[in-house]
Amino acid sequence: MDKPFKFSLYYIASAPKKGGTVFIPLKELIEALSEEKHQRWEKLWMVSDRQSRIIHPLIYPHPSTKKPTLCFHLGMTEGFCWNYQSKDERWTSWSETEEILSEIHAEIESNPNLIYVHEWQTGDFILSDNLALGHEATPETQLPVSEVGLRVLHRTTIRGTNFPSK
Ligand SMILES: O=C(O)CCC(=O)C(=O)O
Ligand SMILES: [Fe+2]
């Protein structure tokens, strides 16, 4: 996606007994990185579509706050590029791509103090700044209806206007 969604709106029409959604603030996640990891992540670009050359820096300024934020998608990333458009440019193999995605996920998991898990009640509505907050469904969202009841979550997104760049 060339311009990531600005906002996400969630409305749960039917909440299951368990099956929350995780939210994590990305500026704070960057601030929690070790100096070494921060420097490495600054050199990474994420490739969401190689053919249409949609490539964004992993770390870039949030268009409204200008504070550093992250552009990543744990499920839909074709690859990464180190030092994009410099003489040291290098594209990752699939195994290296998987390693980097795991590293990002591990970084999230190692900051439980930053994580907010929303446990839904029917009728809840959330409006989130999608560029400032990462989100992920918890594994419990995959439990069968027979065990936890029906889960119907409506999500609407507000089109982004910013092409992330350094
Ligand atoms: O099902 C959830 O809790 C999260 C859904 C989600 O990731 C999305 O709508 O983008
Ligand atoms: Fe999502």
UniProtKB/TrEMBL annotation:
Keywords: Dioxygenase, Iron, Metal-binding, Oxidoreductase
GO MF terms, alphabetically ordered: dioxygenase activity; metal ion binding
Highest taxon above the source species: Eukaryota
Chain segments annotated as transmembrane: none
Residues covered by the TauD/TfdA-like domain: 8-140
Matches recorded under PANTHER family: (3R)-3-[(CARBOXYMETHYL)AMINO]FATTY ACID OXYGENASE_DECARBOXYLASE, DIOXYGENASE RV0097-RELATED
Family the UniProt entry places it in: Belongs to the TfdA dioxygenase family.
Protein name: TauD/TfdA-like domain-containing protein
Lineage: Eukaryota, Metazoa, Spiralia, Lophotrochozoa, Mollusca
